[in-house]
Design goal:
Chain lengths: 429, 323, 293
């Protein structure tokens, strides 16, 4: 009896679903790069960016009564990728999202969700003029076009707690953190002196974006290249091994925490260093007397030559947008010299703009702490852009949590295996 | 939608009962022959049938369809090549170490969670059933975790079980290292324990109800045979609530197999080293984060078939004599 | 409601425990209650702390370390009232659909004989087994793209509209009603709708409370679906905005520990209060038939 129920049930499902698939719709309204009118945009949900976003929208709306912009906080989950991905499929994306993860761009592009900004007559020229051709180039997709406007970066550096360093007998003004050996020695001194339970505390969790804050900044500093070049993973190299070995030592000697931190461990003194971008400066304000240095390299690269991960956010225009003309105009307005300056002022994050330090010289005079980040923002390596970026990063993360954080297996063998897996994942159909 | 289901069911020759004699003409009789003696049943169930078709059958059929394709969800009107790939996605499911690991994890989960749930809920329900004082208070306290959102209680558990959280503070030198949720061999047991705690109220409720149906003269008879309270618990109560036990077994296995929220929130995506990843979590990551819905659907379908199989076996061997 | 019968039965089984047995039983129950309630107590204490204290002393209130600041922080960031209203509409819609349509379907599945009844019941069981995440994206496309119901209450409600468990519970209740009642009424010339309204519905009234409470929990606490469907902050149910607050905003507040726990308390409080208020109707026997099968 029961079996029969199920058989009938399954066949009913089959037929009902056939009937439904047959009448699924596929209409799209005509959108044009000329069309103008009201648009909706999303911006990030942290307090400073909300403030900037609202002010920018208000400034625009005051001058454009016929092309009103409605700004909203992005309804973000853990990374925002799910929300935007689902909204693309449903055709419910806003015109612009001022918080795109460059790693997700390839996937959104493959979904047909993103407008090719290079197809605007002044698309390429605007992006290149603003960001500088060299730093803009790494945000081009495989077909050579821009499906995102590289907007702002938070170049990752090493923050260190001057007071804790002094207590541990380390030089708080010129800390020895430039080579791996120096870094490890300083880290050991901090932990063995007991001034903090941990020397540094990158998040040890498994989300796909976590490599951006441990493996990738150091790999960029070591090589200046991406983990994928010409469709092949590059990490199975001496540089890759050195970076992995460095972090493995950190974890093996318990210089970093292996369990998810419940709060910002640098802010509350649980760790003496952090690997993070300038967005965190307001968080440390009044809590930590900090300094910053570039991420370490094996042999100690000079700061003005050290690369890092930019932790950049881009702006994407979505194909569901009807008034793409207005959207493009607003995008240029929101990334103009004036608005970029306001962004810098409000958030301390670096607009990806050529000549940043000279353009906003007065700001950097008033905020000397940010100077190093402005300089660092010129030397960055972002995640590769492709339809499988997220899956590739997840694969890298899985290798890392196992072989580096937990220290399981032979590192060289695991790394070679990971490189093969990365290539396979990157080229997966 | 519903009309196609009608044909489907009719074509499949579903339970047909003899039509009642009716004098209102052949047309009506033929209708009854197709629809059954109470055609109004269709009308009463129509909203539910439409709901099943639209909210359940259609997406499920669609998921089955895409599991055989190299599928990709696109924006409206965008066409990309989505070739038929046969069983490729399914072959991958059985060779992907991540999926295999997650299946092993869920086995650990079920092995801890299900027996714990059955034993604890029965014992607490039996105790609760016989107590007179504080009953309302106790009942409320048992149900409260069940009615509260996971997102809310997960926060507290994170703090309780973190490295320097209260649990480890109390355990002192006995605290595990690394701590519970970041310990590869303790993460899944901790999650299993959490889920048991969270869902127990519901199962206590089921058992409390079942206990009302155990005839009290059986207890009296057992008492006359000289059985103590403990023995009559095993000789009368346990057999008496057997249908409920089958139900608890089935339901806790099903919810266990579909575990998602807890690893998603408690261990930030199945850490450490995927030791707490569940199949549904892997499916979510592949399908929604990484853009491989074809593969994700294959994982889901395999899971559904496995759960159906296990549920069927449990039903057979736990001796569910329900209708 | 029929509370007297189970009461009497319970009291007969409650007698004649030895003293030791009573003590054991009492301690088992008390231990259970502590294990279930302590995390909630800790949630409340933690949410009131100005500075997080994870030591054992932190589990007790310390007057010098108490603040409502964590709650004020939430209130300044989230429109709690609109979240509550959205949750209410969302949950209310689901309850209405489940009670009306679920009862009709349960009645048809239990009392009426029609072709396809078995298949429908099999599907109702199958729904319990399939993980929602498998259906998520197809469903999302269907509801937002095909029906254009993104950012609407209807779009939120639809996937939850008729709780399949509720249908099963209704069916079991209707099955318990003696068939002679219906036969007699049919002979009197009552139509099916009359049967349902005059005989069946009054008899299954106890099932209503069970169904309402079981169904209520789903939409009130659900996060993933309403989160995907609502892009407008003004449309989000409380669970969504608070979950977002807990996972995104709390970490950047001065006291993330307290902020997270305060968010948890605000999320848990309404449903716990409602449950305590209504629990006396939530008599265990109500669900009895659902188990008896």
């Amino acid at each position: 009896m029961k079996k029969k129920h199920f058989a009938i049930g399954i066949s009913a499902i089959g037929i009902a679903s056939l009937a439904l698939t047959a009448c699924s719709s596929g209409d799209t309204g005509a959108a044009s790069e000329e069309a103008r009118g009201p648009i909706t945009i999303w911006y990030s949900n942290n307090a400073q960016e909300v403030q900037w976003g609202q002010a920018t929208v208000d400034a625009w709306n005051a001058e454009h009564p016929d092309e009103q912009v409605k700004g909203q906080e992005i309804p973000a989950g853990k990374s925002g990728v799910e929300v935007i991905g689902a909204a693309i499929v449903a055709g419910t994306t806003p015109c612009l999202v001022f918080n795109n993860l460059p790693a997700a761009t390839g996937q959104f592009q493959k979904q047909g969700g993103l407008v090719d900004l290079s197809s605007f007559p002044d698309g390429d020229s605007y992006i290149e003029a603003r960001s500088g051709a060299a730093s803009a180039d790494q945000y081009r997709s495989a077909d050579g076009d821009f499906y995102q406007l590289p907007w702002k970066s938070n170049p990752v550096m090493i923050f260190y707690n001057k007071d804790l360093f002094a207590k541990a007998g380390l030089d708080p003004e010129n800390p020895n953190l430039s080579t791996y050996d120096e870094f490890l020695d300083s880290a050991r001194a901090i932990v063995s002196s007991g001034v903090a339970p941990y020397a540094i505390y990158p998040s040890p969790t498994s989300e796909f974006f976590q490599p951006n804050f441990d493996f990738l900044p150091l790999y960029a500093a070591e090589t200046g290249t991406s983990i994928i070049e010409d469709e092949v993973a590059t990490i199975d190299s001496q540089a890759g091994l050195d970076v992995a070995e460095f972090w493995r030592t950190i974890y093996a000697e318990d210089l970093a925490g292996k369990e998810p931190a419940q709060a910002d461990s640098f802010a509350n003194g649980q760790s003496a260093m952090a690997i993070v971008g300038p967005w965190a400066i307001p968080v440390y304000e009044g809590k930590v007397n900090w300094g910053s240095v570039p991420v370490p390299t094996k042999d100690g690269t000079a700061p003005e030559q050290t690369y890092t991960f930019p932790d950049a956010k881009s702006v994407g225009m979505y194909t569901s947008c009807k008034n793409q003309g207005t959207a493009w105009d607003f995008l240029k307005f929101a990334t103009s010299v004036e608005q970029d300056g306001k962004l810098l002022e409000a958030t301390g994050q670096m607009p990806i703009r050529a000549g940043l330090s000279t353009e906003y010289a007065s700001y950097f005079e008033e905020h000397p702490a940010y100077v190093a980040f402005a300089s660092q923002s010129e030397r960055t390596v972002d995640d590769p852009t492709g339809p499988n970026t997220i899956a590739t990063l997840q694969t890298l993360r899985d290798f890392y949590t196992k072989a580096v954080i937990s220290g399981e297996g032979d590192l060289q063998a695991e790394l070679s295996q990971a490189a093969d897996d990365l290539t396979a994942e990157w080229t997966r159909k | 939608m519903s009309s196609s289901s009608i044909h489907a069911a009719a074509a499949a020759g579903a339970t047909r009962r003899p039509a009642q004699p009716d004098a209102h003409g052949t047309r009506r009789r033929r209708l009854r022959k197709v629809l059954g003696p109470h055609p109004l049943g269709w009308l009463f169930s129509a909203p539910f049938l439409v709901f099943i078709a639209a909210i359940f059958a259609y997406p499920l059929g669609f998921a089955i369809y895409i599991s055989f394709h190299d599928y990709f969800f696109t924006a409206p009107g965008v066409v990309v090549d989505q070739p038929f790939v046969g069983f490729d996605n399914y072959v991958r499911v059985f060779t992907d170490p991540k999926v295999l690991q997650s299946l092993g994890n869920i086995a650990i989960f079920v092995l801890i969670n299900v027996p714990l749930t059955v034993v604890l809920s029965l014992v607490l329900a039996a105790a609760l059933n016989s107590v007179v004082r504080f009953r309302t208070f106790l009942r409320v306290s048992y149900y409260v975790p069940y009615v509260t959102a996971s997102v809310a209680v997960v926060g507290v558990w994170l703090f309780l079980f973190s490295g320097n959280g209260l649990v480890n503070q109390i355990l002192g030198p006995l605290a595990p290292e690394p701590s519970w949720l970041s310990n590869a061999s303790l993460a899944m047991p901790t999650i299993a324990f959490f889920v048991t705690w969270k869902e127990l109220g519901f199962y206590i409720l089921l058992y409390l109800a079942a206990l009302q149906n155990v005839p009290k003269d059986l207890y009296e008879a057992a008492a006359m045979d000289g059985a103590g309270k403990v023995r009559s618990f095993f000789t009368v109560t346990v057999p008496g609530v057997r249908p409920a036990t089958v139900l608890v077994l089935l339901l806790s296995t099903i919810t266990g197999a579909n575990l998602f929220t807890e690893p998603y929130l408690l261990t930030s995506g199945g850490g450490p080293n995927g030791a707490s990843a569940s199949p549904v979590l892997v499916m979510y990551q592949e399908g929604i984060e990484q853009g491989h819905p074809g593969y994700a659907s294959a994982i889901g379908i395999v899971l559904v078939i496995a759960v159906l199989l296990i549920a069927f076996l449990q039903y057979r061997f736990a001796g569910g004599k329900e209708r | 409601m029929s509370r007297t019968v189970p009461r009497r039965r319970r009291s007969t089984t409650a007698v004649s425990l030895t003293r030791t047995q009573a003590v054991v039983r009492g301690s088992v129950l008390a231990l259970g209650a502590i294990a279930f309630l302590f995390p909630f107590y800790y949630m409340l204490i933690g949410s009131l702390q100005a500075e997080p204290d994870t030591s054992i002393a932190g589990a007790f209130p310390d007057p010098t370390n108490l603040t409502l600041g964590n709650y004020a922080a939430i209130d300044s960031r989230i429109d709690l009232w609109s979240g509550l209203v959205n949750s209410g509409i969302f949950t209310g819609g689901v309850l209405l659909c489940t009670v009306v349509f679920g009862m009709l379907a349960g009645y048809a599945l239990a009392i009426m004989r029609w072709t396809g009844r078995g298949a429908t019941f099999a599907l109702t069981l199958l729904i319990q087994i399939v993980p929602f995440q498998l259906l998520l994206i197809p469903l999302y496309v269907l509801i937002t793209r095909s029906y254009g119901l993104g950012d609407t209450y209807l779009g939120m409600i639809l996937p939850f509209a008729i709780n399949a468990t509720a249908v099963i519970i209704f069916r079991q209740y209707f099955l318990q009603i003696p068939g002679e009642l219906f036969d007699a009424a049919r002979i009197d010339g009552a139509g099916e709708i009359g049967l349902l309204w005059r005989i069946a519905v009054p008899l299954v009234r106890p099932a209503l409370v069970t169904v309402v409470l079981l169904t209520f929990i789903g939409p009130w606490n659900s996060y993933l679906w309403p989160f995907l469907v609502t892009k407008e902050a003004g449309m989000q149910p409380l669970a969504v905005s608070l979950a977002n607050y807990i996972s995104n905003v709390a970490a950047s507040t001065a006291n993330p520990f307290g902020a997270t726990l305060a968010g948890a308390v605000v999320l848990a409080a309404p449903v716990v209060v409602l449950f305590i208020v209504f629990q006396r109707y939530f008599i265990s026997t109500d669900i009895g038939s659902g188990v008896k099968g």
